[in-house]
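Re-run requested by the PI after the first attempt was lost when the workstation crashed. Everything re-entered from the original request form. Ligand of interest: zinc ion.
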Amino acid sequence: MDRPSAPLALPSVSTTAAEGIVRPTDCRHRRIMLGAMFARRSLPAKSVASALLAVLLLAWLLPGLAPRTHAHNDEHWLLVPGEDRSVGEIADRHNVSAALVAHINGLSPTTVLSDQHLLIVPLPGAAAIVDTFVPMAIKPAFPGQTLAMLAEAHGIPVEWLSATNGIAQDQRLFPGQPLFLPNLADPRKTHVLGQVTVEYLSPYIGAGQTGYLLLSSNPGIQPSAQLGNTKLHLTQVPHPQAKTQQQFHYSPIPIDPLTESGPVTVTVSYLSQADILVAGELRFEVFQPNPWRQEIIVVDGVVAARLSVEALQEETNLLTAIWNRNNLPRQWSDEPWQRPIPEGHPTTSVFGSRREYRSPVPIHATFHTGWDFYAPVGEPVTAPLPGTVVLAQDLVTKGLAVVLDHGQGVLSGYWHLSEISVEEGDFVETGDLVGLVGSSGISSGPHLHWEVRIHGVPVNPQQFLYGSILPPETPE
Ligand SMILES: [Zn+2]
């Protein structure tokens, strides 16, 4: 919805009878060779027609198959009809690992396929990419599935799926289309740092998204972790794999939406019983899910005056102090958060949109630090998880505003309310009313702006509704 659609024109296809190869001659993205499609013996007309349709769809959609890091390679994939052979036999015939072919197609190596079934076989170049692209899992799409549905089912931001697979968010998927997903059940190898083990560190985190770090330690050892200049707030968590006395420690890792693509370092350290500081560095990759949505907001002179540097500075200072609170223990568990507003209210602005305010000349450039839902004035806004009310007041730009502290450096904000239902210092449980939707402050109409910050960093709140960044208390 925020990304331009991929060109919908199908590439023209020519066949080379001698080789039995179907080759798209005008693929704008990269060269794809689809071969062995038509065996020399004749196939029933119906099966030829459906196979041809599949080839056309595949030729159109396969550019999305390659991981972005290999975008300039030539990848080759075959579409092979089953011909009553097993997945393993077909793989052998093409000198590709049976396990890999089975994995890509979501089948077992022993599954016997009919002529109606087309198997996707990676040729050596593509197989090497797929094979080394850990910790990815490849899952075939089911009929009617969209990237958004897949994202929701796996608790992954749709921007991540879109960027990783090179597929626009609104592009149609064909049944069986292989898609790259992060394989959270198979994280990178654990790193042992003396008495502390890094059990998991998210290998790829999108700008504006949240990953996590999970450590285990020997009893009595208290590990610390630092992301750049920010000390991460590690919380001890229960873990089913814990051996006697072994302790697990968890911290979310928030990535600022302005972070450039590239490696980022996390430092893990602890003080040994002999008072020796033991430290190690770990890396993960940040990627920018470009392009961000652009929004130009034209405001009148009165509003422009309220956007003055001084007025903004006062509000920013107040909120910065609030966002950086980090003294409450974690008030949340591995449950996905409850929506702060009922389902069915459309999104009017997504997290991270680049915004420019004009009056009529540009006066202020920023990015959208939250998620906006349209809702009528008076619609109840509720706490998505337990927390303490740390701000409940009228602000210049945010209007009637509430901020909740959920512990472990995680806070959430609710702006432009028509009424505030809590007081600073109150403790709210999940589902408790915090206020009513309105259009106070600088707002173009009634809506809820929902914002989540971790250690002061604004992150995409949608991720928390799917529980994707929460500690694996029940690993798969
Ligand atoms: Zn907003």
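Saved to the shared folder this time. The chain has three domains: 13-182, 191-287, 294-465.
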